[in-house]
């Protein structure tokens, strides 16, 4: 059968599938579009694909780094908490109580602390309650504990503070004796060499070693104007003369609960640092007195970073380095003033700096004011030393020269005042290195200073000769300055005529020439030693022709005397004899030795506080060595001998209680207390109170003896301080020997038993007519003679 025709445009059906399975499926038509009508899909560029990959990798890396950092911080925190189970300082600053509950810091009783220290061969000192220094609540539960140790090997001051511990007593604890350790600070003293660097004397011949000096005391150094607690560790070292005080300044911050050592200091005059608000602005400044002798040396420190972390709080030294000034300021005058100060001319520097201060007026800064105050401190000390009355002309001259008072130093020389012309050349010889820089500085700033030029010429006269001095001074033969110097040079080179001694001539008929009473002796005072002579051989001794027989009365014995020192032309010197003296017959020799017509010497037994007259009977020469034969009262002890009438026993002067004497001598009171404070460390207020409380103690705790030692008016003072008094002020242990001092009414210290060592006792003094005394010190019953040193102003 024929198929039907297909109309045009009608879709043709697909032929049936021959697949049996597909035959049962219903075919659904799908709407499609031509390929040309489809939208083209963009193809991605390679760099965009890389960016997406790097983004994924970076995110993954940051995630891993963050996780690692978190783990690291956790591990670090764990380790820190194990090693240092204390809260961070920034937390402790705001929550101090957090210290008590932060960790399991073990609490200890006092017994447990002492047991722990004993195992370390250490021991605990006395607790210091910081609440006693301030009423601020931060100090309520804080205490300091010094830790001591015994040094070995050691000969003296063997116990020293080696550590400081800060403890708190946690609040709410049932037991009162419960302490929590907050901080430990190991401490050690300075070396000898470090302490000696503080000596301002350029001629100091002392050499320090690397030996560590001990710190032996902890003292408050608090000021209510400053936050926190301030203290100082101290120690004493005595290379020679007065002991040097040294130490460390400590700062305790109650917020951070830490101890910080801020400054090592040393003070040759033995004074503790003190606080002074010198500029009347802000916090006070710390003053350290390093003055040595006549050379003032004050160190000023300002406190900085008080509100920062405790370890960053520091003391900054105020120096004399030039500061920046306003453009219209007198810069040259300012720099000249600092230049003079740096050369030790403090009074002149203070005058010039004061003029600059007046000119600047409102532009005067706080830093400039601190410099001005520092110069003023030195200037006041230097001027006071120059103006005071000294016992020796050389001391007065040196004080004037060191202060730059050139004209005032020339005046007593030109007026030929007693002792001044003779003192000039030896003084300049000894102190050349101290005077020369001051003179050159003066002449650099003021070349027309005539008095300074004359002193500069005198220095050249000392080091070279008068021709060199005149050549430097001026070439003009008719110059008034040249003529003035020639007159001064004549005065100082020929100050006093030497005494004329008339010696017998060989033509004299008698071997024993009578010496006129007006003939001056070679010595007007002698010191020697007398030893018991058991066997006497008469022929070994030269005797006067009409002398007494060599016989002894009952209770007498023979002595052999050797002379050691003689006083001649206002100074003590070793006795030496020339051939002319050894040829003199005995009567003439007695006159030469100053024994007088009676030919006697005074023998002193220090052990028994007894003295006797020794009658000189003969002389024996061995070369130029002289031995005298004398007879006296029997004794089994050696005696020291001196010229009759010159021995002064200190026991012969009645002592007076120091407390009553100070009340009656108001003009001297402050000076004496200041000397006791600077030399021994007494607190004037505490000392006065203790003296009043113990005024009736038997034996007395402190006495004073006014004596005419140096020939001046008012007299010198012999002050005796008992060991009980020093122990009450924590300055010495009870049971030691008394401390003896000799000072002038103006407070000048002439002698201290501290200089001679423990056990030394002042027995008395030998006083020749010229007032150059010799102290006699006894230690182990043996005499020691201390001679007056005009250049050092003390007995040594």
Structural write-up:
The strands form six sheets. A six-stranded antiparallel beta barrel has the order 14-15-19-18-17-20. Strands 1, 2, 3, 4 and 5 form a five-stranded antiparallel beta sheet that branches. With 796 residues, the protein is of the alpha+beta class. The chain starts with 45 loop residues before the first helix and ends with a strand. Helix 6 (331-342) runs antiparallel to helix 7 (346-360) and helix 12 (432-445) runs antiparallel to helix 13 (450-463). Mean pLDDT is 77; it is low at 1-28, 35-41 and 497-519. It is 31% helix and 24% strand. The radius of gyration is 45 Å and the shape is globular. A hairpin with an 8-residue loop joins strand 3 and strand 4.
Using the alpha-carbon principal axes, give the shape.
globular
Please summarize the sheet with the most strands.
6 strands, antiparallel, barrel
Ends: how far apart? Answer: 164 Å
Radius of gyration over all CA atoms, rounded: 45 Å
Uncertain residue segments:
1-28, 35-41, 497-519
* Strands ordered across the widest β-sheet: 14-15-19-18-17-20
Give the percentage of residues in beta strands. 15-25%
Helical run tally: 22
Got a strand count? 30
Q: Which structural category do the helix and sheet elements fall into?
A: alpha+beta
- Give the quaternary arrangement of the chains: single chain
Q: What is the average per-residue confidence, as pLDDT, rounded to a whole number?
A: 77
Estimate percent helicity: 25-40%
């Amino acid at each position: 059968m024929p198929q039907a025709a297909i109309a045009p445009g009608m879709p043709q059906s697909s032929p049936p599938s021959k697949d049996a399975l597909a035959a049962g499926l219903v075919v659904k038509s799908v709407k499609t579009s031509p390929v040309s009508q489809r939208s083209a899909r963009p193809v991605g560029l390679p760099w965009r694909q890389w960016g997406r990959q790097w983004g994924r990798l970076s995110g993954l890396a940051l995630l891993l780094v963050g996780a690692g950092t978190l783990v690291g911080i956790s591990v670090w925190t764990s380790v820190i908490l194990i090693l240092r189970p204390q809260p961070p300082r920034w937390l402790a600053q705001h929550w101090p109580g957090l210290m008590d509950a932060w960790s399991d810091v073990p609490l200890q009783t006092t017994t447990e602390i002492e047991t722990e220290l004993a195992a370390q061969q250490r021991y605990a000192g006395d607790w210091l309650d910081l609440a006693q220094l301030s009423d601020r609540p931060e100090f309520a539960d804080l205490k300091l504990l010094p830790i001591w140790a015994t040094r070995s090997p050691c000969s003296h001051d063997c116990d020293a503070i080696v550590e400081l511990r800060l403890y708190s007593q946690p609040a709410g604890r049932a037991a009162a004796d419960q302490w929590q350790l907050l901080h430990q600070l190991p401490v050690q003293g300075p070396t000898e060499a470090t302490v000696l660097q503080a000596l301002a004397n350029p001629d100091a011949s002392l050499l320090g070693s690397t030996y560590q000096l001990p710190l032996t005391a902890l003292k408050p150094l608090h000021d209510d104007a400053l936050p926190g607690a301030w203290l100082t560790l101290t120690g004493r070292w005595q290379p020679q003369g007065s002991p040097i005080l040294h130490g460390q300044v400590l700062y305790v911050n109650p917020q951070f609960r830490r101890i910080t050592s801020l400054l090592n200091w040393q003070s040759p005059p033995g004074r503790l640092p003190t606080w002074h608000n010198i500029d009347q602005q802000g916090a006070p400044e710390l003053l350290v007195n390093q003055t040595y002798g006549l050379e003032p040396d004050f160190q000023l420190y300002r406190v900085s970073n008080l509100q920062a972390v405790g370890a960053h709080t520091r003391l900054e030294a105020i120096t004399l380095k030039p500061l920046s000034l306003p453009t219209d300021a007198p810069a040259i005058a300012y720099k000249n003033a600092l230049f003079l100060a740096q050369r030790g001319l403090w009074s002149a520097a203070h005058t010039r700096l004061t003029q600059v201060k007046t000119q600047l007026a409102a532009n005067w800064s706080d830093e400039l004011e601190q410099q001005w105050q520092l110069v003023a401190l030195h200037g006041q000390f230097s001027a006071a030393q120059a103006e005071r009355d000294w016992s020796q002309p050389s001391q007065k001259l040196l004080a004037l020269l060191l202060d730059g008072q050139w004209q005032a130093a020339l005046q007593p020389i030109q007026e030929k005042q007693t002792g001044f012309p003779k003192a000039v050349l030896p003084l300049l010889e000894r102190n050349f290195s101290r005077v020369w820089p001051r003179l050159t500085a003066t002449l650099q700033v003021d070349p027309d200073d005539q008095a300074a030029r004359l002193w500069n010429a005198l220095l050249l006269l000392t080091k070279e000769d008068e021709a060199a001095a005149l050549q430097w001074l001026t070439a003009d033969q008719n110059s008034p300055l040249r003529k003035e110097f020639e007159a001064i040079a004549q005065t100082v080179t020929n100050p006093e005529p030497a005494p004329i001694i008339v010696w017998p001539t060989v033509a004299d008929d008698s071997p024993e020439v009578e010496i006129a009473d007006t003939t001056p002796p070679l010595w007007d005072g002698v010191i020697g030693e007398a030893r018991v002579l058991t066997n006497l051989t008469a022929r070994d001794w030269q005797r006067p022709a009409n002398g007494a027989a060599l016989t002894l009365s009952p209770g007498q014995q023979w002595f052999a005397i050797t002379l050691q020192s003689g006083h001649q032309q206002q100074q003590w010197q070793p006795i030496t004899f020339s051939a002319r003296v050894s040829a003199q017959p005995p009567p003439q020799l007695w006159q030469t030795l100053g024994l007088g017509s009676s030919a006697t010497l005074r023998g002193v037994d220090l052990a028994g506080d007894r003295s006797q007259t020794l009658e000189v009977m003969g002389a024996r020469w061995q070369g130029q060595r002289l031995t005298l034969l004398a007879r006296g009262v029997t004794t089994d002890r050696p005696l020291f001998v001196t010229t009759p009438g010159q021995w002064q026993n200190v026991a012969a002067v009645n002592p007076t209680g120091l407390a009553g004497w100070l009340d009656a001598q108001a003009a001297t009171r402050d000076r004496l207390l200041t000397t006791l404070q600077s030399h021994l460390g007494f607190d004037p207020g505490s000392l006065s109170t203790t003296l009043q409380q113990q005024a009736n103690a038997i034996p007395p705790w402190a006495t004073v003896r006014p004596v005419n030692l140096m020939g001046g008016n008012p007299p010198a003072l012999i002050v005796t301080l008992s060991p009980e008094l020093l122990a009450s002020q924590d300055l010495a242990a009870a049971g030691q020997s008394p401390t003896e001092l000799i000072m002038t009414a103006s407070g000048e210290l002439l002698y201290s038993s501290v200089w001679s060592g423990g056990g030394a006792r002042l027995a008395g003094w030998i006083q020749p007519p010229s007032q150059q005394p010799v102290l006699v010190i006894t230690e182990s019953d043996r005499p020691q003679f201390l001679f007056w040193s005009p250049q050092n102003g003390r007995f040594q």
